[in-house]
C-alpha cells in the first residue's frame, strides 16, 4: 500500500502518517494524487 511514498515535514514515518490519514486524523495535502 503506502511505503513511505509521501513526504512530510516531521519525524513520523510515511507509513504511520498514511495510517493516520486513512483514519482522517491528519490532513493529507497529496490526497488528490492517489
Automatic annotation (TrEMBL):
Protein name (record): Uncharacterized protein
Species of provenance: marine sediment metagenome
